[in-house]
Prior knowledge:
Layout: E1 9-10, H1 21-28, H2 41-53, E2 58-62, H3 65-76, E3 82-86, H4 90-93, H5 98-102, E4 106-110, H6 118-124, E5 136-142, H7 155-167, E6 171-176, H8 179-186, H9 190-194, E7 199-203, E8 214-218, H10 220-232, H11 241-253, H12 258-273, E9 278-279, E10 289-294, H13 301-310, E11 313-314, E12 316-317, E13 322-326, H14 333-348
Parallel strand pairs: 1-11, 3-4, 3-5, 5-6, 6-7
Antiparallel strand pairs: 2-8, 7-8, 9-10, 10-13, 12-13
Helix pairs in contact: 1-11, 2-11, 3-10, 6-7, 12-14
Bound molecules: pyridoxal-5'-phosphate (PLP).
Amino acid sequence: MPTSATTPIDLRSDTVTRPSEDMRRVIAQADVGDDQYGEDGSTNRLQEHVAGLLGKEAALWMPSGTMANQVALKVLTRPGDEVVVGHETHAVWHETGASAANAGVQFREVGSGGPFTAADFLAARKPRGHVIFPPTTLVEVENTHNRGGGLVFPQDEVERICAAAREHDVATYLDGARLWNAAVATNRDPAELTAPFDMAMVALSKGLGAPGGSVLVGSADLIEQARRYRRMLGGAMRQTGHYAAAGLWALEHNYQRLAEDHENARILTERLLQSGRIDLDPTTVQTNIVVFELAPGAPDAATMVERAFERGVLLFAFGARKVRAATHLQVTRQQCVRAGDILAEIAEEAA
Ligand SMILES: *Cc1c(COP(=O)(O)O)cnc(C)c1O
């Protein structure tokens, strides 16, 4: 990827990466067929590989993480059910109200900053069969937690939450769009992180850099049900092997290097912390996402995003004074140093 002073440093998301030359070759040569007849060799291989990596019986390729989340809700809940989730979960904030429209569920956000405890879950849980309460039938964990700043959800708490859920006949789901980041950051086997859950989703299109696709995993029975709902939502495609082959290649080549993205996020954080006008808790920077607040006196988030754009740094505003930067395989360490200088400089300017 060419980089120069005029190439924007794109920290908007880890989804903005474009396929490398090697990945494009793999896509061009992919073994494909009609996936709805189970005849796409690359997709079959990817599903088998990811099911193995995540220690589940079966896997199903999905066009997007959003659809994987929606299908999981259709499988694990019924309309009118309540789903317990962490504060500012993706399904609540970033899926255009899809969960209410598709599965017909309502969310109960608990905890703060993304993580929550088994005690939080139990306090929020409503029993089945009550004449008034909506039954809590699912608890969902997001790991890493995007709006929490790429936080890794503590695994011992995951285990306690899922054990409490099982005890009360509540299903468990992991939105692991960035589970690979959590696994690399904690040096754990991803299967260990998915083990407590009935179903989990992982993305190929975020830090791994594939052009699209997520994979939903679970028991063979749950995945069979998911196949029907994928079709119902219009997500059953044909020669998906072009995506799947890129995903397999990305898992092989771009997995361990996620540690570099985490290091670059730390470098960016160090520089931002030198500004007295940026509020950032460095303990939240555990993976490839940096979420910070602009202190009183600094420009607001929209102004910072606009001024950064003019100076070649692309970011997203996540609130009136909240900004997110995400590192990925197409931003270098040197670019993160430069972005840090530019953002700190903007924070010091007049509002
Ligand atoms: C990106 C993301 C999704 C959705 O993935 P898309 O492929 O963009 O639909 C779901 N959950 C989390 C936590 C995400 O970051």
